[in-house]
Amino acid sequence: MKLKGFIHCFVFAFFGLLQQSVQGRPLLMSAPRPWRDDTATFARWLVSQSSWGVLSTISGEWGGAPFGNVMSFSDGLPDEGRGIPYFYLTTLDPTARNALEDQRASFTLSEYNLGSCGKEDPEDPSCAKITIVGKLHQLEGNPDEDEFARTALFTKHPAMKWWPKGHDFQIFKLDVENIFLINWYGGAKPITAEQYLNADMSEIASVTR
Amino acid sequence: MKLKGFIHCFVFAFFGLLQQSVQGRPLLMSAPRPWRDDTATFARWLVSQSSWGVLSTISGEWGGAPFGNVMSFSDGLPDEGRGIPYFYLTTLDPTARNALEDQRASFTLSEYNLGSCGKEDPEDPSCAKITIVGKLHQLEGNPDEDEFARTALFTKHPAMKWWPKGHDFQIFKLDVENIFLINWYGGAKPITAEQYLNADMSEIASVTR
Q: What positions does the domain CREG-like beta-barrel occupy (chains A, B) (predicted)?
């Protein structure tokens, strides 16, 4: 127990130090960066630690162009994410309108936002990036998932609770079909949606709790 | 002249203070944030100050899905941007392959990356975001523009000079057709590509030089 306590103390101190600024960018992550070859765990970590990204849909209004839009999201309570991105969208914004016409979508995140890329260029492969390709649709008919998603969103983005009622924001979900992950040199890592959704997150959890 | 000197001194001191961290996020901008109702100038400022974003193309490999990808870019030397995003792409990456098949694309940036959104949620309309919709294609047959774009990219992203020659990186350009800008409450601001490309940047330039 003493050794375990010492290790926990060391780990917390280490990540406390990591929270300091690197190249002027603050580290925003709450759980340690997994080893890059633990591909599925790494992908889930990147999604879980992030709070926003770019959600791309097909724009009927602009000739079928791929339309990226900055969106806040959540995949669960902090460090308890399930890997599925949930959004709080209104049809006053083109993204929700697009998805209701054509569900094809992708959601793109950069590790650069977490502050853990150091001085590397955001496009350098050592600065991880992920794109989740799938179908974007309104969440309906599942009260348990609705409750999970609502708590996930409102915990990570408290301001959402106060977004105007009159704008009729609804919870949307991106069903995960394909994963494009780069977290080192050598091209995208092969990873299936099933591997991603069933990734072992226990190693990370044991450090952060 | 004394008054002008005093004003310049005050402006520099003010923006020097602004360079301090807001909510732990460092301010990365080198020119002052324009007034939000100077829409075209504001849009150009946001693009010029940014160094990366998400470039979305149509993925033939994934059923025509809109595919967002994290990309570094430049629209010119620091504070001398022309508003046209240039990229350095290789067909080893899906984005360049997609564009060679279908030029429809968009490029999305968030002010959140500049550190000037304070404590606001990244999706709050007071934290500006822009999407440039247009056609993405390889830059060919224009030595002057090629030289401009190459200098723009390599100055903002010095690492690009050392990217592997064997990957055959080429300069791509996003022709600006439509602009989606949100920088305050009330929905997207009406702004044409022509207004954007011809925006008056003199006020910003006079402060930063």
A: 36-197
* Best residue in B46, B87, B123 for a mutation probing chain A (most A CBs within 10 Å): B123
Asked if A56 lies within 8 A of B63 by C-beta distance, the reply is no
B203 pLDDT above the threshold of 60:
yes
Find the length of chain B: 209
Backbone φ and ψ of B149, nearest 5°: -65, -40
E strand segments, B28-169: 52-59, 65-72, 86-89, 104-110, 129-138
pLDDT at A174: 98
CA distance, residue A93 to nearest chain B CA (Å): 8
**pLDDT at residue B3, rounded to an integer:** 47
**Contacting residues for B85 by C-beta, under 8 A, at least 6 apart:** B47, B53, B73, B74, B75, B107, B132, B173, B174
Which domains does chain B possess?
A: 2-208 (2.30.110.10)
Q: How big is the CA angle at A147 (ends A42 and A135), to the nearest 5 degrees?
A: 55
